[in-house]
């Protein structure tokens, strides 16, 4: 009798796959992580496991926020990121210190933080997911590709926006082509860049190709030779990825990464276009929890106030 019970419990085909989603919870921006998580959780039936990455000092705050709000139903693991791994790999840059936050580099270390998954989604904290995250997870990666990104030249409706705000969408905007090491790469400066704020990654390939080591090598070279600076495009976390993944990544459906919402407090997309978007990304300086910023209503839909009252939205009337 016992035998049958075991056999029938769960056939391998019916085990619901876990979708690991990695999001960072940084000091001063925790409301961002909370809104992102809340939007994902509310729009899917899938079995999502959130990996929330924080620094030792911020972890108690985010844990309390989750456990004392309606997010207490989510499946999550909190992982501490040790900034010591970055020692000697980041050039101090006074012009935009926020780009040097240790958690900006979490995406370089995915296999070290996430152990048992073959495929992982990494999301920046300043996103809102309006589609079913299962769809993004089902992104096909070509053989030999460790990651999929959204191409910066892939969506006509965003081109207007890019032009109007002077946004960079080629390698020229990120790497210093006056430097020999960059020219030696043989990458044309007009090559289309990609945005590493949304990543679907294959951990086996990542480890096999030693992607983390390659990224660290370029970080170290930048410390010595200043090959890309944060005054250019996306600062210091994008450039090593552009180099290491050049010509070796798969594509994410463009509707799964509608970006530049934080690029200017005046540039707006049409409401209809935003309704159709599966994922919205406020990359740029104008964040939806601050003021001024655009399309904040879409973001605030998913925001859950901080039970401890520490994190507050900045609004014109506040």
TrEMBL record:
Membrane topology of this protein: Single-pass type II membrane protein
Superkingdom in the source lineage: Eukaryota
Mitochondrion among keywords: no
Keyword hit for Lipoprotein: no
GO cellular component, one term: membrane
Database matches in SUPFAM superfamilies: Nucleotide-diphospho-sugar transferases
Pfam families assigned: Glyco_transf_8
Database matches in InterPro entries: Glyco_trans_8 (IPR002495), Glycosyltrans_8_dom-fam (IPR050748), Nucleotide-diphossugar_trans (IPR029044)
Sorted UniProt keywords: Glycoprotein, Glycosyltransferase, Membrane, Signal-anchor, Transferase, Transmembrane, Transmembrane helix
Gene3D superfamilies found in the cross-reference section: Spore Coat Polysaccharide Biosynthesis Protein SpsA, Chain A
Membership in a protein family: Belongs to the glycosyltransferase 8 family.
PANTHER family documented for this protein: GLYCOSYLTRANSFERASE 8 DOMAIN-CONTAINING PROTEIN, GLYCOSYLTRANSFERASE 8 DOMAIN-CONTAINING PROTEIN 2
Protein name: Glycosyltransferase 8 domain-containing protein 2
Classification lineage: Eukaryota, Metazoa, Chordata, Craniata, Vertebrata
């Amino acid at each position: 009798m016992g035998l049958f019970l075991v056999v029938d419990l769960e056939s391998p085909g019916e085990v619901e796959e876990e979708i690991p989603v990695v999001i960072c919870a940084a000091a001063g921006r925790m409301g961002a992580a909370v809104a992102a998580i809340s939007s994902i959780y509310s729009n899917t039936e899938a079995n999502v496991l959130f990996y929330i990455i924080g620094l030792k000092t911020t972890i108690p705050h985010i844990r309390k926020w989750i456990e004392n709000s309606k997010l207490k139903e989510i499946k999550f693991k909190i992982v501490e990121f040790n900034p010591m791994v970055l020692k000697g790999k980041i050039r101090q840059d006074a012009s935009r210190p926020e780009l040097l936050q240790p958690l900006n580099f979490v995406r370089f270390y995915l296999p070290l933080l996430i152990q048992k998954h073959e495929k992982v989604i990494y999301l920046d904290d300043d996103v809102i997911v309006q589609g079913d995250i299962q769809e993004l997870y089902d992104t096909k990666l070509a053989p030999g590709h460790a990651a999929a990104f959204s191409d910066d030249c892939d969506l006509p409706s965003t081109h207007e926006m890019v032009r109007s705000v002077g946004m960079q969408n080629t390698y020229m905007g990120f790497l210093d082509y006056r430097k020999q090491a960059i020219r030696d790469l043989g990458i044309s400066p007009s090559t289309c860049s990609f945005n590493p704020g949304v990543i679907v990654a294959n951990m086996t390939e990542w480890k096999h190709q030693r992607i983390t080591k390659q990224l660290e090598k370029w970080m170290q070279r930048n410390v010595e030779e200043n090959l890309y600076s944060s005054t250019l495009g996306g600062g210091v976390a994008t450039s090593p990825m552009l180099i290491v993944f050049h010509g070796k990544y798969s594509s994410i459906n463009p509707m799964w990464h509608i970006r530049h919402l934080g690029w200017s407090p005046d540039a707006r997309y049409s409401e209809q276009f935003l309704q159709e978007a599966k994922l919205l990304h406020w990359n740029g300086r104008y964040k939806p929890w601050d003021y001024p910023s655009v399309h904040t209503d879409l973001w605030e839909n998913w925001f859950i106030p901080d039970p401890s009252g520490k994190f507050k939205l900045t609004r014109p009337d506040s």
